[in-house]
Amino acid sequence: MNRTLFLLAAFLLLALFLASCSPQTIEVTRVVEVPGEAVEVTRVVEGEAETVEVTRIVEGTPVQEVVEVTPTPIGGELVLYACLFDPDKLEVLFQTFEEQTGVSVTCLDMSSGEALERIRAEKDNPQGDILFGTTNLSHVNLAAEALTTPYQGVGWNLLPDGPLKDPDGYWTGFYYGVIGFACSPERLAELGAPCPTSWQALLDPVYAGEIVIASPAASGTSYTVLSGLAQLYGEDGAFEYWQQLDANIAQYTESGSAPARMAAAGEFAIGIAFTHDIQVQQDNGLPVEISFPEEGTPYEIGGISIIAGARNEAAARAWVDYVFSRPFQRYHNDVAHRIPVIEGVELAEGTVTLDDVTLVEGYDPTEWAAQRDALVARWQEEIGSQR
227 and 360 share a domain? Predict the structure, then answer.
């Protein structure tokens, strides 16, 4: 899509935002399919702070739950770490949020590794308010280090107990993403090789110097790959596999989305990245194909959390609630192809869901958060330091 068409689409989507939720109200709806339980949601307003209380009432029939989020005018500024996609596309969201709350939003684009290090370095004087996006592995680890603060807001209350949220509210998942292979048809034609459809196929010498992937030390995307391989092959087996794969790796990037861009541009034959990042390149009109490993692919739960000691906590809570509105979830899927977690959100054409791929059996991204530091340290010692 060229820039003129994109801007027109952005303004049309902005109009949809304003029509579907007035500057005073965001409405989120979920159908509760749990027999014997209904959910009653009430609002509690204390000064400028607005919270959500959920009371569970046994009624015996499924009900529809409607949550109305009415942001109090807050004003001020909000700083997000780790943007999700093109800032031009985010601007539509920022403008709508500012109209509703009076809060101006700044998003500092960085990889998950950069965001983690920055939050840790600033723990005595936080400069950011929210970790916005990246895999929930990052959010789990920050919570364990007491670097985030819990908030049981609208999204937390909408989602069922389980892997989509921290039980105490330290983080909440707001999208899914699955790992895929970005293939350059032109580059592969030059090699006389197909787009691979398995992890084992990536080891073929025909792909020597033609594969790009981010470093697991810098990128949550590649840690998702590493932890998925450890689930698939066992830890030692995963490192034996990666040692072989390393022979075909042209370079390790800092950004998890960079391999998708590089393969789409024809710089390399294959980029390993999240599928939604590959699809964004397709939206840009670039010739890139997508395949998935038949042995199984890992997935992410993208999360959001409030940084401990945030200067603008009232604004941060309002933003977290806003992320779980239907308009946000729909727009996010439209422009970034990430899979919504809110039920009933209409999906953009071509969205790849968890049901469309073979997942690594038994893989739970939350469970692998505690092993991140140890696995990354081993990867650095055995592979990264040898480059």
Answer: yes
Q: Is the dihedral of CA 61, 64, 65, 70 positive or negative?
A: negative
Predicted local distance difference test score (pLDDT) of residue 27: 38
Same domain, 143 and 191: no
Of 242, 178, 203, give the one whose Cα is nearest residue 375.
242
Q: Does residue 239 contact residue 232 with C-beta atoms inside 8 Å?
A: no
CA pair distance 272, 384, nearest whole angstrom: 17
Helix, strand, coil shares of the chain as percentages rounded to 5?
A: 40, 25, 35
Residue from 17, 171, 158, 172 nearest 94 by CA: 17
Confidence (pTM) = 0.79
Question: What would the pLDDT profile of 218-258 be if each residue is shown by its tens digit?
Answer: 888 999 999 999 999 999 999 999 999 999 999 999 999 99
The count of structural domains within the chain is: 2
Count how many Cα atoms sit within 13 Å of the Cα of residue 29 in the half-sphere of its side chain.
Answer: 9
DSSP state of 359: B
